[in-house]
Design brief:
It is found in: Cytoplasm. With about 170 residues, the chain is of the alpha/beta class. The protein contains 8 helices and 5 strands; from the N terminus they run E-H-E-H-H-H-E-H-E-H-H-E-H. Helix content is about 55%, strand content about 10%. Bound molecules: adenosine-5'-diphosphate, shikimate-3-phosphate (S3P) and magnesium ion.
Length: about 170
């Protein structure tokens, strides 16, 4: 059992899953995503868990998934965007190589603006994003060892910037 090489946090749509897969490939290691772990364990989609059981139950399942992954996954790990809202999950991240992938509000609106599948963002997305970023930014910053901005960068460029920031060499 060993700790993940990299744990990715940041808002939804910032690229944690996409960049995490690229990083695992470049490091010759494996990728794991706590959202996927939760879906596999529960046999239900994330949206279904939110609707049927509520957000507090989802955060508890997410805490269990993070606990298992930080203890047993030696590669690259991506968390869900709201994982850091839970104090217990934040404690589990202490001492790990946590990278905060950031984007500004305009980039978030641009990336998710045309996606009507997110009810949270359906009305006045810019205002919703601003509030979400203001609430979560201090938690992301506190939990992370380094911050990597993704604005105007391709996933490949973001992955390269993460490796640079952590002084990790490709396999
Ligand atoms: N750097 C980027 N620039 C533009 N689009 C991106 C970038 N990174 C990810 N995306 C796109 O944004 C969407 C969400 O990416 P994803 O990796 O699922 O984010 P997260 O896991 O952080 O929610 C995907 O469609 C992905 O292709
Ligand atoms: O920001 C959030 O609260 C959430 C982000 C999602 O993960 P991604 O950040 O990978 O989209 C997923 O965990 C769930 O829908 C809740
Ligand atoms: Mg994801």
């Amino acid at each position: 059992m060993s700790a993940p090489q990299i744990v990715l946090i940041g808002p939804m749509g910032v690229g944690k899953t996409t960049v995490g897969e690229l990083l695992a490939e470049r490091l010759g290691s494996t990728f794991r995503d706590t959202d996927a772990d939760i879906v596999a364990a529960e046999g239900r989609e994330i949206a279904e868990i939110f609707v049927d059981d509520g957000e507090p139950r989802f955060r508890a399942l997410e805490r269990q998934a993070v606990r298992a992954a930080v203890a047993g996954h030696p590669g690259v790990l991506a968390l869900g965007g709201g994982a850091i809202l839970d104090a217990g999950t934040r404690e589990l991240l202490a001492g790990h190589t946590v990278v905060y992938l950031s984007m500004d509000v305009e980039e978030a609106v641009k990336r998710t603006g045309l996606n009507a599948a997110r009810p949270l963002l359906a009305v006045n997305p810019r205002k919703q994003w601003r509030e979400l970023m203001e609430a979560r930014r201090p938690l992301y910053t506190e939990a992370a060892r380094v911050v990597v901005a993704t604005d105007g960068r391709t996933p490949e460029e973001v992955a390269a910037a993460v490796l640079d920031a952590l002084e990790l060499k490709e396999a």
